[in-house]
């Protein structure tokens, strides 16, 4: 890897996306996804979120939504690099047999704004399967209330 190459999660569009993730999480749940010192810049916030010890992922609003963010824990769990992860349809994070349940869950979150305490099976790019536990799924919106996608976070997972 070229050390002079910018980190994609620190590009301008991702700095804005991270702000939407944090804003939306607080909007729907009333809680902060994580705390930052008041003096942190958007760059420092994005870098901190990318490197936290829990998973944060999101996808866009396409008919077949494409993943558009995954922090380091997500990349490790799904065993993908940033470029691969952010060009993958989000449905591929679940096995075909689990996709119907996943779609119902996303529809429920879309209508309610968010859901919590979700447990489900996911699959890494290598075929490794794992449970995600106590996941929170929320709609990503901008300050005007327009839907920008959906996101999920969880701290607990276990190999199957």
Number of helices: 5
The low-pLDDT segments are none
**Average predicted local confidence, pLDDT:** 92
Q: How would you spell out the order of helices and strands?
A: HHEEHHHEEEE
The helical percent reads: 25-40%
Query: What overall geometry do the principal axes of the alpha carbons give?
Result: globular
Rg from alpha-carbon coordinates: 15 Å
Instruction: Give me the CATH architecture, please.
Output: 2-Layer Sandwich
**CATH homologous group name:** PAS domain
Can you count the beta strands?
6
**Overall tally of domains:** 1
Based on helices, strands and strand pairing, what is the structural class? Answer: alpha+beta
CATH fold description: Beta-Lactamase
What does this structure look like?
This protein is α+β, with helices and mostly antiparallel strands and 160 residues long. The protein has one domain: PAS domain (Beta-Lactamase), CATH 3.30.450.20. It has helices spanning 12-29, 42-50, 72-78, 82-85, 99-112, and strands at residues 55-59, 67-70, 114-123, 129-141, 147-154, 156-159. Strands 1, 2, 3, 4, 5 and 6 form a six-stranded antiparallel beta sheet that branches. A hairpin with a 7-residue loop joins β1 (55-59) and β2 (67-70). α1 (12-29) crosses α2 (42-50).
């Amino acid at each position: 890897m070229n050390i002079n190459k910018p980190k994609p999660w620190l590009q301008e569009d991702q700095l804005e996306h991270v702000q939407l993730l944090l804003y939306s999480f607080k909007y729907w749940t009333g809680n902060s996804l994580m705390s930052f010192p008041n003096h942190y810049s958007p760059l420092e916030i994005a870098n901190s979120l990318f490197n936290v010890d829990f998973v944060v992922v999101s996808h866009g609003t396409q008919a077949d939504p494409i993943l558009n963010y995954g922090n380091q824990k997500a990349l490790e769990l799904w065993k993908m690099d940033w470029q691969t992860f952010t060009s993958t349809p989000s449905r591929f994070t679940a096995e075909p047999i689990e996709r119907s349940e996943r779609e119902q869950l996303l529809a429920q979150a879309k209508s309610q704004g968010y859901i919590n305490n979700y447990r489900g099976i996911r699959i890494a790019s290598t075929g490794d399967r794992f449970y995600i536990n106590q996941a929170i799924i929320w709609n990503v919106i901008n300050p005007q209330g327009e839907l920008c996608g959906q996101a999920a976070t969880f701290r607990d997972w276990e190999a199957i």
